[in-house]
Amino acid sequence: MQVERTTVAALLLAFSVLGASAISTRALAQPPAGDAMIKRDARTKVSNHVFVILDEDRGFIPNVGIVIGDKATLIVDTGMGDRNGEVVLGEARKLSRNTEFYLTATHFHPEHDLGATAFPANAKMLRWKDQQVEATEDGAAMIERFKTFSPAVAKLLDGASFRAPDVLFDDEITVDLGGVHVRVFGVGPNHTRGDTSFLVVEDKVLFTGDTVMSVFPAVSAQTGSLAKWLENLALYESMQPVVVVPAHGKLIDVSYIRRYRGYLSTVQMRTAAAKRAGASAEAAITMLAETIAKEFADLAPPNGAGGRINAAIQAAYREAP
Fold first, then answer.
1. What are the DSSP calls for 183-194, one per residue?
2. What is the pLDDT of residue 303?
């Protein structure tokens, strides 16, 4: 779509009346932390081999995946700190007598990765190499940042650390749990540099982390790639998942993958057109964010969409030629 410079100027003048502050550039926070504890005995059976402990829209808690084979169990996202990890371990043991565990995380944020140290020493931690680099470089600072969010979070993270990986993989591996196979593959940089997704092959259950949810994604404005994200969405759709398990919020289906593709394509195309027409990144946000928010209002979280759309536009602008 070609945008003439005169059109850009007209839009800038119109939006200057409203003020750029109409849509916040701040990334949206999670819901209030509460006790930030994963619930016991709250498992949902998703398929023959997959159970999920849903976050129930509670802050700083992930949707935890428990995938059970004949010989081993794989955990997707272990929770924040050892206390949560112990809950997840207990729930997994209620579902199976397996003593062999594989531990994984959709990304390095504390509520997804820092319960792994509660698992037995023989459990195997799997990480994509880019996720490990991010945890090594930014993990300690992220833990300290999360501690400032609430006293409950700070208590859970007291003494918390990242479990050392037992398996580092370059792009993709497949884990055989005994009659159940899980494809584990890196997809970042999107929400984070190290985003990782998981397909339970026999059940067609796809864990997408923060790369597909029922609300707008939180794009990393500094490192996220919309081109890579759209590539991932095409891959997800080609897998024909029956159930999609996001990192947070309700269980969804392939229609949300298509909706994400429509949203991110719109951001990418309109931002690139604005940049070609001479608009700055800030001007592009002012021109585009409110309209896009209205077009994709079904993806808005309860506390608003502005910050997440702004970050997506920033990432698209940085990436556009």
1. EEEE--SSSSTT
2. 78
